[in-house]
Amino acid sequence: MRKFLFIMRYSPWPGVIPGECLDMAMTVAAFDQAVSLLFLDDGVLQLQTGQIPPARYRGRVLNPVWDALELYDITTLWVEQESLRQRGLDATRLLRPIQLIRRPDVPDLIAAHDRVVSG
Fold it and tell me: pTM (2 decimals)?
């Protein structure tokens, strides 16, 4: 079993990158690989509660996907605490339980995985 880390860097909208990255993570997990997610920069906004997409956004809303992650055994969600703080978010008010990681520790987390996908 290989260890995959998917790095989520982008806000939930506009665009398809966050949804595509989640689809890849679930596909990899479906083949019995260990998958973790790391949320950095604007990627932390994907976990914000009460998300309502802008009216002009016609893409996929990711909120329903978060509950499906457990079905794929994706239970480790790392969130960089500096990114949360910079965006005024509280770790206790996110959609899913998370593990906080400090910015200086991110390179060690990345090195601990066999494959890294950034999206």
Answer: 0.91
Range of the domain at 66: 3-47+62-118
Task: Identify whether 32 is part of a domain.
Answer: yes
Please check whether residue 53 lies inside any domain of the structure: no
The CA distance from 57 to 101, in Å, is: 31
Contacts of 112 (CB under 8 A, 6+ apart): 3
Sequential pLDDT tens for the chain (119 residues): 999 999 999 988 777 888 899 999 999 999 999 999 999 999 999 998 877 776 666 666 777 788 899 999 999 999 999 999 999 999 988 988 899 999 999 999 999 999 999 98
